[in-house]
Amino acid sequence: MYPNLEGKTAIVTGSSKGIGKGIAERFGNEKMNVVVDYLTDPDGASDTAETIRQNGGQAVTVQADVSKEADIRKLIDTAVSEFGSLDVLVNNAGFSESEPSKELDLETWQRVLDVNLTGAFIASREALKYMTEHEVKGSIINISSVHQVMPMIENVHYGVTKAGIKMLTETLAIEYAAQGIRVNAIAPGAINTPGNPIFEKSEEQQQKMLDKIPMREIGRPEQMAAVAAWLASSEADYVTGATLFADGGMTLYPSQLK
After folding, report:
1. Rounded to whole angstroms, how far apart are CA atoms 237 and 224?
2. Which end of the chain is flanked by fewer CB atoms within 10 Å, N or C?
3. Could you tell me one molecular function GO term of this UniProt entry (predicted)?
């Protein structure tokens, strides 16, 4: 627990399920105010908000498409009108649809870029406007992936967005460090979330995935949330421009293990 987070306000995009839900609920444990963003799952968002309240925080749900400027501004405006400030932004919303690169149509390519990368830029830009104008020494946390450095077959669009998140993080970090605004990223590995295709595969295929993880276990959203809480807190107040790999060692290339 990080006492300095109590009463602070955060926006967590894509927080009706998965990693975003885990982060939002952890912020509730820290007694923060949380704007819970969703696109198509109002029930999931309501469940997240209720858990936040039960954990001691405050919450409000907002439907927003992060690729739309007007919707991002709605998130910012809601944070300020409901809770009086914006201290933390977590750019979590993202998706991918596996497709052989030679068959990937431009519409799918563009939609993945719009949500995963452009959405993170728009939200960061609007948060930075607020934080600089109100002298808030805030924290922006981008949810990336091990695939910002590890290519993944049939996911060229996803990998490109996550590589872009790395440079977005580093560029904004150096640009706004003097104002006390920290920008970092978390790169999860294989995480147990709804829709993760690994859990739709055979036991043999799942074992092959585990063999790629030195810790021999699939990660959990609450483990990613613990990293996010630390990055948001004053305990990490000298950390900016970093990507923290929370992947059980996947990026250590366990194929080298004997």
Report:
1. 19
2. C
3. oxidoreductase activity
Q: Which position has the token pair 């309240």?
A: 53
DSSP classification of residue 118 = I
Residue found by looking up tokens 């149509």 in the block: 105
Q: Which of 158, 176, 238, 253 is catalytic?
A: 158
Distant-in-sequence, close-in-space partners of 78: CB < 8 Å, separation ≥ 6:
35, 60, 62
2 included as an active-site residue:
no
Q: Is the dihedral of CA 163, 165, 168, 170 positive or negative?
A: negative
pLDDT at 137: 98
Nearest CA-CA partner of 220 in 248, 242, 245, 201: 248
Distance (Å, whole) CA 122 – CA 204? 41
Write the CB contacts of 127 (distance below 8 Å, at least 6 apart in sequence). Answer: 11, 76, 86, 89, 138, 140
- Name residues whose C-beta falls within 8 Å of residue 64's C-beta, 6 or more positions apart in sequence: 13, 37, 38, 39, 71, 72, 74, 75
135: which residues sit within 8 A by CB, 6+ positions away? Answer: 179
Which pTM value belongs to this model?
Answer: 0.95
User: For residue 61, which phi and psi values (nearest 5 degrees)?
Assistant: -100, 145
pLDDT tens for 205-251 read: 778 878 889 999 999 999 999 999 999 999 999 999 999 999 999 99
Domains of the chain: 3-256 (3.40.50.720)
Cα-only R_g, the chain: 18
Measure the N-to-C terminal CA separation of the chain; round to a whole number of Å: 38
